[in-house]
Design brief:
This protein is of the alpha+beta class and 291 residues long. The chain has 10 helices and 8 strands. Helix content is 43%, strand content 19%. Strands 1, 2, 3, 4, 5, 6, 7 and 8 form an 8-stranded antiparallel sheet that branches.
Length: 291
C-alpha cells in the first residue's frame, strides 16, 4: 500500500491549472474521524472513490453504504452528509468539479467539453462499483501532486500538467462507464457462503484458512478475491461485523457482556476497538441509545 506524506491531503485548482477542476482530496485514516455536516456544492459535482474500508453518505433522505472499490457522486446543489456517522478508517479520494466554467472544461475543446459535462450530469446511478483501475489512477495523481511543483513555464511543468489532465480524464471516463453498469455491493455466490459463515461465528477469532477452505480457494487467492469483492481484507471485515453486531447488542446488554459474547479478550480491548470505528466508547454509545 502506498503511503503519502500526510494521512489527509487536499489540492485546490491552482495545483492543476485546469478550468473546472476545483478540489482533489485523499485521506488514508487508521481511525475514524468526525463525520461530515450537511453541505452542498452550488455549481459543482463531487465524485468519491472509496479504495478501502466502509463509509456512509446521505443525500435527500436516502442513506448509501459504501465499501471498498465503490464510487458515489452528488450533483450541484445536493445537500449531503455522513448521516450522523463518522468518516471511517480507510482510504478515500474525492474530486470536486465546477461544471459551469467560462473556459474550456478541463482543457478540452468543444464539443468534447460539453459532452463530458453532460455525461457527468447524466450518470444514471449515484452509488456503483468503481473500475478496477481507479485506485491506481488516483494513486498516481496523488503522488504526482505531492511532489514539488516544477517552475512555472518550464517543460517539466507542462509535462506534469499534461500527465495530470490525462489521468483525470481517464478516471472520469471510467467513472461514467462504471455508473452505467450500476453494480454495487453484490457478493458472488462463492463469497456469500463465506459471509454466512462469518455471520454465524462472530464470537470466534478470525481464521482465514477456514474461510479459504469454505471458498475452496488457496489462502492467497482467497485473500485477493475477498478484498476485491468486499473492499477490505478478511480480518478487517470480520472485525467490522463484530462492531456492527456490538452496536445492536449494546442497546440491551452491558459492555462486559457484549465484549464476552463477541469473543474479545477483555472489555478494555473491546472498548478500544469500538471507539476506533465509532468515535464513541461502548458505555457512551449505550447511554445514548438507551436514554
Amino acid at each position: 500500500m502506498k503511503r503519502f506524506s500526510s494521512p489527509r491531503l487536499e489540492f485546490k485548482q491552482s495545483a492543476f491549472s485546469l478550468p473546472g477542476m476545483f478540489t482533489f482530496g485523499h485521506y488514508q485514516q487508521a481511525a475514524s474521524h468526525s463525520g461530515l455536516q450537511p453541505h452542498s456544492h452550488r455549481d459543482a459535482i463531487e465524485i468519491c472513490f472509496l479504495e478501502r474500508g466502509e463509509q456512509t453518505y446521505r443525500v435527500g433522505g436516502l442513506v448509501y453504504r459504501l465499501r471498498g472499490n465503490d464510487q458515489f457522486f452528488t450533483l450541484p446543489g445536493e445537500v449531503h452528509d455522513t448521516a450522523n456517522l463518522p468518516q471511517e478508517r480507510g482510504i478515500l479520494y474525492w474530486i470536486i468539479l465546477r461544471l459551469e466554467t467560462p473556459k474550456s472544461f478541463l482543457g478540452l475543446a468543444e464539443p468534447l467539453a460539453a459532452r463530458l459535462k453532460l455525461e457527468l450530469r447524466r450518470m444514471p446511478t449515484r452509488h456503483f462499483r468503481g473500475h478496477p483501475d481507479c485506485a491506481q489512477i488516483l494513486g498516481e495523481m496523488t503522488e504526482l501532486l505531492s511532489r514539488r511543483k516544477p517552475h512555472r513555464g518550464s517543460s517539466l511543468a507542462s509535462l506534469r500538467q499534461l500527465r495530470l489532465q490525462s489521468l483525470l480524464l481517464q478516471y472520469l471516463t471510467l467513472t461514467v462507464e462504471a455508473s452505467r453498469r450500476g453494480v454495487h455491493g453484490s457478493a458472488s455466490p462463492l463469497m456469500q457462503r463465506v459471509l454466512q459463515y462469518i455471520e454465524k461465528h462472530l464470537d470466534e477469532p478470525v481464521h482465514v484458512p477456514r474461510l479459504a477452505e469454505i471458498a475452496q480457494l488457496s489462502e492467497s487467492r482467497f485473500k485477493t478475491r475477498f478484498k476485491r469483492e468486499m473492499g477490505v481484507p478478511p480480518a478487517e471485515f470480520w472485525l467490522r461485523q463484530k462492531i456492527e453486531r456490538a452496536s445492536v447488542l449494546l442497546q440491551t446488554r452491558n459492555v462486559t457482556e457484549v465484549a464476552h459474547e463477541l469473543g474479545f479478550s477483555s472489555s478494555q480491548y473491546f472498548a478500544t476497538v469500538f471507539k476506533r470505528y465509532t468515535l464513541a466508547s461502548p458505555s457512551r454509545f449505550r447511554l445514548a441509545r438507551t436514554a
